[in-house]
Design a protein that fits this description.
Oligomer: single chain
Number of strands: 16
Radius of gyration: 24 Å
Strand order of the largest sheet: 11-10-12-9-8-13-14-16-15
CATH architecture of the largest domain: 3-Layer(aba) Sandwich
Strand content: 25-35%
Number of helices: 12
Mean pLDDT: 89
CATH class of the largest domain: Alpha Beta
Number of domains: 2
CATH superfamily of the largest domain: Vaccinia Virus protein VP39
Largest sheet: 9 strands, mixed
CATH topology of the largest domain: Rossmann fold
Structural class: alpha/beta
Length: 387
């Protein structure tokens, strides 16, 4: 069986690509791809949560990465080198196609990542990666797992295998990468904020304000990265997950509440106090505020630590609730401070939810953009900057 890509006539100046999106947002992703110059989608399929498009465009290869970063609903867009017919668990055609791609480049520093999209096999994607890697080794081409300069993605559909190329940081299966990491996350939310910071280019300065913090995923993540955080939530945090040496202050309307006392009594690094306590707030790495009157408490705190350099909001409420909290908190933010807001979707009228949030934010924030991050579920992540 030959390379199906070579048999097709796409035009000499076309770049062939594979684009992946969340099935729930496939229509939005297709609209984004239609904006590529001279775009033509020639194949699409889906399986469970992944929708795959294959097509061609006159876009220059060097511009592919920059353009893909502007997409809100396309998770990945990759250069397609070849596509071959599949014959069950016989991977010989794939092995030849991969070897051809690797040998075309001066650098043989690569890794192989497999994504199954409707491909029927008892073998897991990881097992197929091992098989393909061992064959490359038999040819004298050794995969480099730790610091590869490029990643060969093999997308396996029902009958066709697509051999693509990506940068090592552009993992297609973010869930597998997250599960394989040694990072001790509190919950899935931590991966959302990591992805948001990477995609939107956020480098927080000063204190970070986390509204809707419990059980503490985003606070934990930013604390591990070196930021100091004020976490707002009446719920308790997973205090035992924070690194030893982190000084935590819990400000509460009722610091003698038995539930709170029981949750913190075994930790020498945690201080319980009432709002009117005379404490030096800057001595603490994390200030957890359990309050009903948030504006008054924040006004009190910023007198000691200054305004915040970043605001994070991830609450179980409507898309407008989070936006109203951001609007309410704007006076406590530095000019240019980053806002990261999870917009919950009550239905799939995505842009209607985004428009409502943007309308609420428009008086105090600018440069609003959105991204469906890999770890988003029935939600989308909004980023903006304080005026």
């Amino acid at each position: 069986m030959g390379d199906l890509l070579e048999q097709a006539d796409y035009g000499f100046d076309s770049l062939h690509y594979v684009a992946l999106a969340d099935t729930r947002f496939a229509n939005y992703a297709k609209k984004e791809l239609s904006k590529l110059p001279s775009n033509s989608i020639t194949f699409q399929t889906h399986h469970i949560e992944t929708w795959m498009f294959s097509g061609s465009s006159s876009i220059a290869e060097k511009d592919l990465s920059d353009v893909s970063r502007k997409f809100s609903f396309v998770d990945n867009i990759l250069k397609l080198h070849s596509q071959v017919e599949l014959n069950g668990d016989d991977y010989s055609s794939l092995e030849g196609a991969i070897a051809k791609v690797i040998k075309k480049e001066d650098s043989h520093s690569f890794s192989i990542e497999v994504k199954k999209i409707g491909f029927v096999s008892e073998k897991k994607a990881k097992d197929i990666e091992v098989i393909l890697g061992l064959h490359m080794e038999s040819l004298g081409i050794i995969p480099e797992l730790k610091n590869p300069k490029r990643t060969i993605l093999v997308a396996l559909t029902k009958n066709i295998g697509f051999v693509c190329e990506s940068s090592p940081s552009n993992h297609v299966d973010r869930f597998r990468q997250a599960n394989a990491s040694k990072y001790a996350a509190i919950n899935r939310a931590e991966y959302k904020i990591i992805e948001a910071m990477q995609f939107f280019g956020i480098n927080p300065t000063g204190y970070v304000l986390d509204i809707g913090a419990a059980p503490g995923g985003w606070t934990h993540c930013l604390s591990e990265l070196g930021s100091k955080i004020v976490a707002i939530d009446y719920g308790l945090l997973f205090y035992d997950k924070f690194s030893n040496g982190k000084k935590i202050l819990v400000l509460a309307e009722h610091p003698d509440e038995q539930t709170l006392v029981n949750a913190t009594k075994n930790f020498d690094n945690i201080t319980l106090a009432a709002f009117d306590s005379e404490l030096k707030y800057s001595d603490f790495d994390i200030i957890h505020v359990r309050a009903s009157n948030i504006p008054d408490v924040l006004q009190h705190i910023i007198k000691a630590i200054g305004k915040f350099g970043m605001l994070m909001i991830d609450i179980n409420g409507s898309s407008t609730e989070g936006a109203h909290l951001a609007d309410m908190s704007a006076n406590f933010m530095k000019s240019g401070a980053d806002l990261v807001l999870t917009v919950k979707l009550q239905n799939m009228a995505v842009m209607r939810h985004v428009s409502k949030a943007e309308e609420i934010l428009s008086g105090k924030y600018n440069s609003v953009s959105v991204k469906k991050l890999p770890h988003n579920r029935e939600e989308i992540t909004l980023h903006a900057a304080r005026d």
